[in-house]
From TrEMBL:
It comes from the Bacteria. The lineage of its organism: Bacteria, Pseudomonadati, Campylobacterota, Epsilonproteobacteria, Campylobacterales. This is tRNA 2-selenouridine synthase.
């Protein structure tokens, strides 16, 4: 499932323009075994979400996205 999130923007004449946005793709992983507890009950499978890696920066310059050599390491802007 793809996501697109805008983390920073500026406002000009009442309109929001993105400055920094991030994309993410996640997927579900199903594990089989014995899971649960006394309150929830027990089940034989568990579903968790994982993210597809990436970590690239792209800059919007002259109407085009240009990939940078920088790598994203979890910092926040």
């Amino acid at each position: 499932r793809p996501y697109l999130g805008m983390t920073t923007y500026y406002v000009c004449e009442g309109k929001k323009y993105p400055v920094v946005f991030s994309t993410m793709i996640d997927y579900k992983v199903k594990n089989y075994g014995l899971f649960g507890d006394e309150g929830r009950g027990f089940s034989f499978s568990s579903i968790s979400r994982k993210s597809a890696g990436g970590g690239s920066f792209h800059y919007f310059t002259n109407g085009k996205f240009i990939k940078s050599d920088e790598k994203y390491t979890g910092q926040s802007y």
